[in-house]
């Protein structure tokens, strides 16, 4: 985002063809950046590290927000809105927390012409200010649990930024809950992790591995951090959501205490959890192909695009017919758009919608109209089908379900095919170098993790849970591939390079 | 918000009774602050001038957002997300704009440990950065119009703050559109003003006056500013939404130009418009009474509350029965809550829901259950009705519509009764002192406005449009009540004290 999205922006697509993007196999990074721009998802901004989310990206994010928000409410959570600013001294109150975030903080030192004695920071996350407020709201165990969340921006300075994946300002929900005991808090952490897993699998068609982070990869201040990890098409991992058990650390720092059922005083056990706008990066990098994006139908802003292919003298008539067809599909709950643009060729339109990843395209020409048929093309296939119009309309929901399932299967197969099991450091290094994920026994020593990272750029992604959908098998008695010490965790754990 | 909402918060309601709030007639300001707190709408925060919006307030805001957002989309607008920060030099580029906002700016001077050569400000509004981005996106008249909006926070330092009404951080949508000519831009400005008017009248039950601001009350940088003005129950006005025609000023400052149909170069004509979280303040202060809030059913987070009134031995049974009743109402599209709390008295619950302004309360006791009846009470009435259960369920939608209409009528009558027509400065001063709005002829001289404000704290609210719902009559030949000069505007205009 350091390059400005303003005037300097026009006509710069060197490697890409007129309509297309650099193929993934040629340069995955260029492919990504071009897709983000050309699909109208986001643009660079004049603010260091921040992006502008454009209409198509914003519509996608709104769908994500709506699904999650409905589920948060359905599971008893309440939304609140906390200030964007946090007094600097709050951040400092939890020792690990400040160490983790200090280098990334945006600091407000002035309001109007007045220099502030006590600066504010733009929130990198809100545990501290929420803890402070909770202290005022909490009296008795009867008040608990607090099941809170908010949607908003957070701010963490990034040197090397990449739209959606790593931006200085990003968008998320942050869940914050407080409980009377550890068991209830840990159940919440797990429930949310499972909710995230379900969302990724069923809505975004992203297979993800549920697991616990190693100590050195924990959230700043957490007792336990759980994550869902997905594999991108270049083999790198992307941490797609996190759920933290914070113990009583923040409660002690902010005096979040209550009278227990037994009339004693205790500190609340708290949790926090988040999925951010980087999930859009995961979606792009999991489902794309050389032609651009592939939007999972269950989240796609546009599920079906209708392209009227008339000539000048009957274009308006074809558009009107397209609108009628769209109305039929809309009645069936399908999200449809009619491409009314004139002044661009049909070829341009086709490429444009392929690039934007719209799951189904319907072409509607005058001869098709006469014959009572339409031409249907799925984004994940090269074939065009000519179908009776009613059949095309009637089968659309099922067709979209088919594409959704196809995307999940493709991504799952890819992840499984690109994960290897190793028992030596040489094999480990070769696999990582080859862009794979690795399953291996590890001793759990943070110093060993540090060394591995230095050598290979690979880190522990997570320790898959016993009931994680993937890589969950328990295997006792293993030996660390790196140190030769006895394995921790009672199972092979997951390593990979990450975004 | 300068007082902290944290630990200092507990047990401070001096004037109010155990359950209630200070009556409006005793102290409107205390009434407002107590209602905001006790109804769980918002709390003070440890950040100067910022509030915390609590669950009930957040649910209300979400309903507001959803209605407006649907309408923006239905009228062809697209959402985007722009950065929260703006380079300081952007603000300075439009002369009136910087003069208007400079004293209120939150300035970021540091990221991590690095002092910034060019500081950022937290956006007070986004015309400048959006103009900058548009310059990069706009080439030809074919690209226009841009019909954009975003939801988010903005930041304007406030010395004396008041929840929802005046906070340093507040929540809003800001619409920003760009057009090829003035007529289209002005039509947009008007369309949005009418949309706001409809929203206030039909959803929030707020009668508002559509009109144009006088020159001295315009938005910083605008050619024309239109507003909707509502009357609070203390007679003060609250500007509840604004829609601005910005001419080409921001386009020139940010180089937002395009090739016209005639192959010439021109600057876009831009607009901006907003309704913010202060509309919640308007809602509270328009519809409340001595017992607390009165939520208009069309926006109420909870339209019907069911209070099971069992004793210890049958309370669970009554709650279960309440859930069955709730399910029936939910099926009819009614938003219902069952009050499952034990450990508080029925009287406490009744007062609590009255204070929160829930439009209808249903009481459900064991004897009612046997008799097949329920007790129903409307928030806007002192009477309880005993109704056959099916009748109560079947008539609920109509009942809610009746309450909605009652609220609009009460507010409209109040506004009309408390607006007086005057022709002399003495009458003007007396009316303003008496908490009225005034309709009067005015010469249009900004210096006269300034003097009137200094004398009376009253300002021009707006010049009602010819088709404003209220106070629209044209009357030629009037004489200014203040200067004796010929009247401008061709009609009486609206003065009042304001929030």
Q: Number of helical runs of chain A?
A: 15
User: Distance N terminus to C terminus of chain A?
Assistant: 16 Å
Class per helix and strand makeup of chain A: alpha+beta
Mean pLDDT of chain A: 94
| CATH class descriptor of the largest domain in chain A | Alpha Beta
The tally of structural domains of chain A comes to 3
The CATH topology of the largest domain in chain A turns out to be: BirA Bifunctional Protein, domain 2
Q: What is the CATH architecture descriptor of the largest domain in chain A?
A: 2-Layer Sandwich
Taking the sheet with the most strands of chain A, its summary is: 11 strands, mixed
Please report the two chains with the greatest interface, counting residues with C-beta closer than 8 angstroms to the partner's C-beta: A-B, 66 and 66 residues
Protein name (chains A, B): Proline--tRNA ligase
Domain Aminoacyl-transfer RNA synthetases class-II family profile (chains A, B): 49-296
GO molecular function, one term (chains A, B): ATP binding
Main location (chains A, B): cytoplasm
Task: Describe what this molecule looks like in 3D.
The structure is a homodimer of 499-residue chains. With 499 residues, the first copy, chain A, is an alpha+beta fold. Chain A has 3 domains: 42-287, Bira Bifunctional Protein, Domain 2 (BirA Bifunctional Protein, domain 2, 2-Layer Sandwich); 304-398, Anticodon-binding domain (Rossmann fold), CATH 3.40.50.800; 419-496, 2-Layer Sandwich (Translation Initiation Factor IF3), CATH 3.30.110.30. The first copy, chain A, is built from 15 helices and 23 strands. In chain A, the strands form 5 sheets. An 11-stranded mixed sheet of chain A has the order 3-7-8-14-11-10-9-22-23-21-20. Chain A is globular. Mean pLDDT of chain A is 94; it is low at 1-17. Strand 5 (106-111) of chain A pairs antiparallel with strand 5 (106-111) of chain B.
């Amino acid at each position: 985002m350091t390059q400005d999205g303003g005037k300097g922006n026009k006509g710069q697509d060197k490697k890409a063809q007129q309509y297309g993007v650099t193929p993934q196999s040629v340069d995955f990074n260029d492919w990504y950046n071009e897709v983000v721009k050309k699909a109208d998802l986001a643009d660079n901004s004049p603010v260091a590290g921040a992006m502008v989310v454009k209409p198509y990206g914003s519509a996608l994010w709104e769908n994500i927000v709506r699904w999650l928000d409905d589920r948060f409410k359905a599971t008893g959570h309440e939304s609140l809105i906390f200030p964007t600013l946090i007094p600097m001294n709050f951040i400092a109150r939890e020792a690990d927390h400040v160490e983790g975030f200090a280098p990334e903080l945006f600091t407000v030192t002035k309001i109007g012409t007045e220099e502030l004695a006590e600066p504010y920071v733009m929130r990198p996350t809100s545990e501290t200010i929420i803890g402070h407020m909770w202290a005022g709201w909490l009296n008795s165990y009867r008040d608990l649990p607090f099941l809170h969340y908010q949607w908003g921006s957070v701010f963490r300075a990034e040197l090397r930024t990449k739209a959606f994946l790593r931006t200085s300002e990003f968008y998320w929900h942050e869940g914050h809950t407080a409980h009377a005991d550890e068991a209830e808090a840990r159940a919440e952490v797990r429930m949310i992790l499972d909710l995230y897993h379900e969302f990724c699998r069923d809505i975004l068609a992203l297979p993800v591995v549920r697991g616990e982070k190693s100590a050195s990869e924990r959230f700043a201040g957490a007792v336990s951090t759980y994550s869902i990890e997905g594999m991108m098409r270049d083999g790198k991992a992307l941490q797609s959501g996190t759920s933290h058990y914070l113990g009583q650390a923040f409660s002690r720092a902010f005096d979040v205490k209550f009278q227990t059922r037994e009339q004693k005083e205790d500190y609340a056990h708290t949790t926090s959890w988040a999925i951010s706008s980087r999930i859009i990066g995961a979606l792009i990098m999991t489902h794309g192909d050389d032609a651009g994006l592939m939007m999972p139908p269950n989240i796609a802003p546009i599920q079906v695009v209708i392209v009227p292919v008339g000539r000048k003298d009957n274009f308006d008539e074809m558009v009107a017919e397209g609108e009628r067809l769209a109305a039929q599909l809309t009645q069936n709950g399908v999200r449809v758009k009619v491409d009314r643009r004139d002044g661009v060729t049909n070829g341009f339109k086709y490429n444009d919608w392929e690039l934007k990843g719209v799951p189904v395209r319907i072409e509607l020409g005058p001869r098709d109209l006469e014959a009572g048929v339409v031409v249907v093309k799925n984004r994940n296939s090269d074939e065009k089908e000519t179908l009776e119009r009613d059949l095309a309309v009637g089968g659309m929901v099922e067709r979209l379900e088919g594409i959704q399932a196809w995307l999940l299967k493709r991504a799952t197969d890819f992840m499984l095919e690109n994960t290897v099991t190793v028992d030596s450091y040489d094999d480990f290094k070769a696999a990582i170098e080859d862009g794979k994920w690795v399953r291996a026994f590890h001793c759990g020593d943070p110093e060993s993790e540090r060394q591995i990272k230095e050598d290979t750029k690979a880190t522990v992604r997570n320790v898959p849970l016993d009931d994680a959908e993937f890589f969950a098998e328990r295997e006792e008695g293993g030996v660390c591939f790196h140190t030769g010490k006895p394995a921790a965790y009672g199972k092979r754990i997951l390593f990979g390079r990450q975004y």
